[in-house]
Write a structure and sequence with these properties.
alpha+beta, globular, single chain, 3 helices, Thiol Ester Dehydrase, Chain A, two-stranded parallel sheet, 31% helix, fatty acyl-CoA hydrolase activity
């Protein structure tokens, strides 16, 4: 890893999208592919803010859509870096649906994405070490680490049942 450090707070990113007809299926709900696209963009921005480098998606963990986002609602994506490797950056992305008329907000999905930082020639390059400057940042980091572990264990358990 690099000698440089960056904080979880430096990576925090919030992105919003108004769900329009082109983003929906025939039931008037956001297409899963559109939501995945927004998650990927939000996660990439968090990784780039953290590393000050161009970043590309290496993987996206399992995604369960637990609540629909309806036409006219606002999709709110929130992302932050929670772990790093030598050239890789792990990002948690939460998605909420927000009713702009009532300000009601509900969770719709969460996933964990891994990005790789690139140098000017497009080759993987070292990333800063992650630091958490406050107990709140450390709690967010720990929540993401535990959440990813639980999610992966759940996927493995489901696969074992096949």
């Amino acid at each position: 890893m690099s000698e440089a450090t960056a904080t979880l707070a430096q990576s925090k990113t919030e992105m919003t999208e108004l769900v329009l007809p082109n983003d929906t299926n025939n039931l008037g709900r956001a297409l899963g592919g559109a939501v995945l696209h927004w998650m990927d963009i939000c996660g990439a921005i968090a990784a780039m803010r953290f590393s000050n480098r161009q970043c590309v998606t290496a993987s996206m963990d399992h995604v369960d859509f637990i609540s629909a986002i309806d036409l006219g609602e606002v999709a709110v994506m929130e992302a932050y870096v929670f772990n790093v490797g030598r050239t890789s950056i792990d990002v948690k992305v939460d998605v909420h649906a927000e009713n702009p008329k009532t300000d009601e907000r509900r969770m719709t999905t969460t996933s964990f994405l891994t990005f790789v930082a690139l140098d000017e020639d497009g080759h993987p390059t070292p990333v800063p070490n992650l630091t958490c400057e406050t107990p709140e940042e450390e709690a967010l980091r720990q929540e993401a680490v535990e959440g990813r572990t639980e999610q992966l264990e759940s996927v493995i358990d489901r696969m074992d049942g096949l």
